[in-house]
Protein: asparagine synthase (glutamine-hydrolyzing)
Organism: Adonisia turfae CCMR0082
Amino acid sequence: MRGIFGIFHKNGQPVTPETLGAMRAIIKLWGPTGTRAHCTEEIGEEIGFGYSLCDLDSTSNPEHLPITHPQAVGLFIIADARIDNREELYEILKIPVSERRTLTDSHLILLGYAKWQKACVGQLVGAFAFVIWDQQRKELFCGRDHMGLRPFFYYDAPGCFVFASDIEAMLACSSVPQKLNEPLLAAHLQEDTYFAEKHQTFQANIFKLPPAHHLLVTKETSRLCRYWSLGNIRDVRLPSNEAYAEQLRDLLFQAVECRIQTNLPIGAHLSGGLDSSTIVAIASQLLQHQDKTLKAYSWSPQPIRTNKPAGNEHDLIEALCRQYAIACNYIDLSVEDVVRTYRRDFTRVPYEMMLREELVLQQASQDHVHVMLSGWGGDETVTGHGWGCLSSQFLQGRWQQLHHELCAFTKTSDNISQVRQTARYARLFYEKVLIPLIPEPIAVMLAGQHSRYPESWINPQFADAHGQAVRRLRGVALRERPGVQQMQWRWLDNGHITKRLESWAINGARQGVSYRYPLLDRRILEFCLGVPPEQFVQNGWTRSLMRRAVGGILPQEIRWNRSKVEQAAFDVIGQVMVAALPELLEQLRADPRFHAVAQYLDLKRLTEAVDQATGFERGTEALAITLACANVCTKVVA
């Protein structure tokens, strides 16, 4: 993990060290070892590159960028990359065995570009964002990995093209105008975080290179193309349920192993759920072979040793820790933490899912942990709940299989009466079969546009002014529809994943921590998207494929847990968030520009809502986000 930045003057004007200086100062925050910038005639007067010297991906082979191709004269690369299919690329590119150990990831990408040109991105497995400058053609080629694991932002104008790993670095460049993206702000005020936008940012002139895309920039044109989609997925057909589980188990070990190839101390999230527990268990096994111990981190508070409520997440966390002889670090969330998070200017430094993660980062930094494994992203595919499976069976006329699954779901114990089983059967048939079959326009008409937030405090005039743009931002609804593969892809292709990945990448890098997500490994995603839908729902169990794959790896109480509710964590976050709302509002009122925010928000209703907040619910979270938006608005109003 390293920060990269650069400028391409399309008008041929030379890029000087002074031009890059302000961007360099921000990227310096990405590590304790400083930055380096390159503006040389060898590369081209109109181009300038820079990067942070701290690289959390390198082991024994530190990279000195930009790298040039030894045979293809005039090709230069600067990259933030970790390539996981190196062995495969060695063979395809015919890399001599004697050169493989010292070949860096950036160099490997450049060799791939020399062979495949723009198609090289489709050959890469890993986490990457890179720029290749072709001096002879005078063009920039930019590529980003399949999920957007590494951040990449850009500004594209007739005179120049600016890119960086960090929005704040972009804004430090004098060529990049600062302007609030009001339509996106309006969407943020009215919707939950699950809207589909993957290209825009809260800065109107700064864009993201979307995941699974590449961008070709010349003096005259810019062409954005997608290279990975559902159409790339091949069907996976194996002889038995056991074969599917075994194949997934092998892929899980492969994904974790290639993410712990580092000399740096390694940590991992642990919530007691199926996803994080699997990653912690596999990583612990692999690290024990290297005489290393994994450090685990939870978003939950310290467990109560006396009068502990039965069935909360601590029981599951401690069961796994006992099995693998590891310790788990817990957090102590305070009102001050909530205020600090929601007072951030998220248009410059993202805050997505940072409330509790900020405390994990602080503890990890104290523990000298520089690599953090996370099980996030599993719900979308590998541990998917089989959304769309039962309604698909109904549409396909597979009545016997549908009836079998509905019966298995309703009879979760022998003590359930026939009346209760019948009632459950009817409810499941209605919720999981009939409701998903309702066409989208009718569903919207009956229930309204989906939003997790029960109320919005946006100024109605501001909402009306951007109504059309907000509707476009909503994209495809994420409610359950027939088709497991299609549902998985809708969730994977939604902007909420990219937002969290970018937020954690940028905030983590500023504290010297690189996040890695084994369950978002492209090989695992393609496998799960290709297997038959029934692998995910079997005999009344959702997430069936993953449960079978982790047999012998996880404690049974985690493996067969039907629902994970992080009760202890939510109890604390509810208390501190409600307590923080008045303080957030008070700090806003102290700003002389507070009343000017009325052009964006209904301040009277917002104030009343804060005064009436008593318990934690979705509306409480919406209030905190609205107050964060109000803080941003104070910085842009006249």
Remarks:
- The mean pLDDT is 89.
- The chain has four domains: 4-228, 238-382+490-565, 389-437, 570-634.
- The two ends are 39 Å apart (CA to CA).
